[in-house]
Amino acid sequence: MQWTDTANPTYFHKVVDCQWACPAHTPVPEYIRLIAQGRHDEAYWVNWVSNVFPGVLGRTCDRPCEPACRRGRVEEKQAAKPEPVAICRLKRVCADNKSDEFRAMVPKPAARNGKRVACVGAGPASLAVARDLALEGYAVTVFDGEAKPGGFIRTQIPRFRLPERVIDEECGYILGLGVEWRAGQRVGSMKALLAEGWDAVFVGCGAPRGRDLALPGRDETRAQVHIGIDWLSSVSFGHVTAVAPRVIVLGGGNTAMDCCRSARRLGASNVTVAVRSGYAQMKASPWEKEDAEHEGIPILDFHVPLAFEHVDGKLTGMRFKKAKPGSEAGEEVVIPCDEVLIAVGQENSFPWIERDAGIAFGDDGLPVLDKLSFQSSLPQVFFGGDAAFGPKNIITAVAHGHEAAVSIDRLLHGEPVTQRPPPHVNLVSQKMGIHEWSYDNAVTLDLRSKVPWAAAEAALASIKVEVELGFDAAAALKEAGRCLNCDVQTVFAPKLCIECDACVDICPMDCITFTADGPGLRERLNAPALNLMQDIYVEGGLKTGRVMAKDEDVCLHCGLCAERCPTGAWDMQKFMLITAKAGAASRDHATRKEVA
């Protein structure tokens, strides 16, 4: 059996499931511990370095970290509905409770290095690039057709989910670094932009075109049928302030959920969501579906739209085929309505990039990019966010921005853009004395805390009243206590082990097994390790020739093995991984110098 290479930073990184799953690799347990200690400025800083928009993401993130959270797995025998730590909503806690002194923590940009970078679009990817490069002394200019920065964060996410003050604040931190903001200047020609002599160009213009449905009656009912993302933008800017009484929303993604909940607040008495897939297959996040249903909005699955019904051009309803799961058969039904919002997907649109500008596009209409560096076929042009590989989410766009900024920085230092430095990693013992640790390792049995909501009468009466109120201090502390500190690793030193099996006896999850070396290890553990996505920690070199095998999948990181061990063979060591951002740390050692 091959023993575990714990010197490889990937190994312990994968054990911190939440950080591994986060596209920006935010050190989740670290900021949760800081929140538990009331150190909100520092918790916000940890987030700001990694994901740039803690307040925005604390309300709107797609939360890839939460399905990965170990808490949901270890609660399977304890709770009827095992749930992860409320990682996303705890992020909001530090954003809401940080002090004004946080501004003093934002570093001053380095002296200007003479290099100019243009960012097209003011969404999360472009703003992440702008922040990272501005700190390194680049003169960054952001172009956008709107009056305020934020991109789809500002135009498509309703104010009842994300107040505008949060967007203003977090975009302001970035523009405050000396980034030039060109409001109301939509780039109309890539060739003209390149002619201005930029050292690099980043395209983060999103996927701005919503898909339409070419169904019978579409042309006749054009006045009452709207593209979802365009309609949300009109609502955001105050151009739309009311809707018809009966509204149907087509689509099963998060945009559809925003549309239906917005329509409810703008006066619709009857809002229905119709989706062609099954309920479980909808692209919307589970909590987004739950929120819509909590507000009395029915979701009809397996409804395939067939036509817009109308009388003399006035929309009267929609005709659907009510399909049977796994079958093409189904009866036709007509649902009466006065207005329809189409939210069946988004697609990229680059009419402003001339096809002879030197940037290659694939058959899917997307630019041909290197997936690591985000560099296009024109070396000085990079893409990121939805503009790169199609619609995703905010945290993915931020991750793209970080990587593109590293690529731009390396390019302008004459270094290969496809190479990346290793992350900053360390392991530090948490032992303070005999049976004393620098973190709280008492595992609570508390179930997930519920985020309080505003009263329904107020929340549904206005498009601008924030629905979720966020955790108060007591609830935040309780929820933070559910975190298992997965970044505090159980590290084993075989030379110190006397094979007394004390750790085996005390482990509450039967994670640890001392057994003969050889194949079939997963089946021979005290508790079979069935999750193949999580590694087995295997160490040899024991005096009996056996190996120590620990299942990382359901380990509580409670530290009982280390407390019980009479020889100190087990230690609890905090693992910290910070990915390299643009700047000296991301360059080759020989060229870690200022841009000439």
UniProtKB/TrEMBL annotation:
Pfam families: Fer4_20 (PF14691), Fer4_7 (PF12838), Pyr_redox_2 (PF07992)
Keyword Iron: yes
Entry keyword annotation includes Membrane: no
InterPro entries hit by this protein: 4Fe4S_Fe-S-bd, 4Fe4S_Fe_S_CS, DPD_II, FAD/NAD-bd_sf, FAD/NAD-binding_dom, Helical_ferredxn
Keywords: Iron, Iron-sulfur, Metal-binding
PROSITE patterns the UniProt entry points to: 4FE4S_FER_1 (PS00198), 4FE4S_FER_2 (PS51379)
Ranges annotated as spanning the membrane: none
Ranges where the 4Fe-4S ferredoxin-type domain occurs: 488-517, 545-575
The name this protein goes by in its record: NADPH-dependent glutamate synthase beta subunit-like oxidoreductase
Native source species: Pelomonas aquatica
